[in-house]
Records
---
Amino acid sequence: MKGAFFLRSVELKIGRAALDRALALFHAKHVNKAARMRDLIDAIKNEAATSTAVEPDDIEALAPTWLRGTGMPTLPPMP
């Protein structure tokens, strides 16, 4: 669940289209290969930097909250 909410938080930051592009590029690069969460975060940060006004550090800041912390963080507000 926390991974899903991480992606939802990213979507709220960079938009659905940019997240979809990042996921598609990530998948194409890593199909039938091992990948780490760091690889996914880097792909999202790269897409955010090239197609949105969101700073890559804004994406990086979501990782400790959702992926490395214990418990359930506060859900992001719905637009």
---
Amino acid sequence: MKRARPYGAFFSSLCLCPLMIVVCLIAACSGLPTLQPVPVSSNGPLSEACRAVFPQGKWQFTHAIEAAYPGGGENLLMGVTVIDPSQQTVDCALMTVEGFVLLQAHMGKTLRVERAVSPFDREGFAAGMLADIRLMFLEPAAEHIQTGWPGGQAAPDDKPVCRYIGKAGVTTDVRPGSGWQISRYAPRGNLVRTVVAEPTGGQAGFPGRLRLRATGPAGYTLEMKLLSAERITD
């Protein structure tokens, strides 16, 4: 087994080095698409379908995580995540495959790091990790929500999206379906995160695999295989 690399690199220097130029070009060309509104009668069902992408109720997920980062290196880790949408909280633990806890943290209104083994205690590490977890599992906070077809016109193979427009201009597009997709855009309109779900091998209605890709010169990719999904009842 390869020695665990700092997960903090996921948020500061991870990327697939051979694809660096391609990723940078994609980031430069991927701007916030315009939306062609869907019919008013379709707004309700579409909004409900977008909400269904995210867990309802309190859940615990266990994933095997493959990370790709500079130099073509790869790493296999385990992640345990507890999501509580009613409280808007995330609890997570990052471990080696043998079960040694590298990082344990909680995010609600504030971030609390309960355990961090060097170099996983680097500044910004836990905050970056939990921000990506929130993107994957919690419905985005939004000042208002739009619905429509991206690109300004509806093609036969297009799927409508829900656009969550948050504070400070951060925008998140959610395309619902069994193979759903989440795209996050920075205030300047550039694409910064993409999450794609693959339903194969899923459990309890959740996708069997998630792929998170961060674009830009410090881009990285996470492949997450679902091992278990358990509903928590208090």
---
Amino acid sequence: MSEDYGNDIITISDEEGNEFELELLDDIEFSGEEYKVFLPVGIGEEDPDYGFVILKIMEEDGEVLFGSVDDDDELNAVYEFYMEKLFLEEGEAEETEE
């Protein structure tokens, strides 16, 4: 993600044609797969739909696609991995400030 040009925002559509804007937070690799972590744009933290959106990077016919992670165990493992990464980065930032 390039901080020089602002936030990376994408628009995705679900199976019903509803469009959602998502802000890219991070790219992660876990168990040999690539994922992107997003937050929804334009909704508050009190909204039940607010929270991390984790999409798996897939390739189909040479085209890169975002796919939902339908396996709960996989989704939970990726989420836990990302949270550990966040806390590690936060701890490193605090150490450099001291």
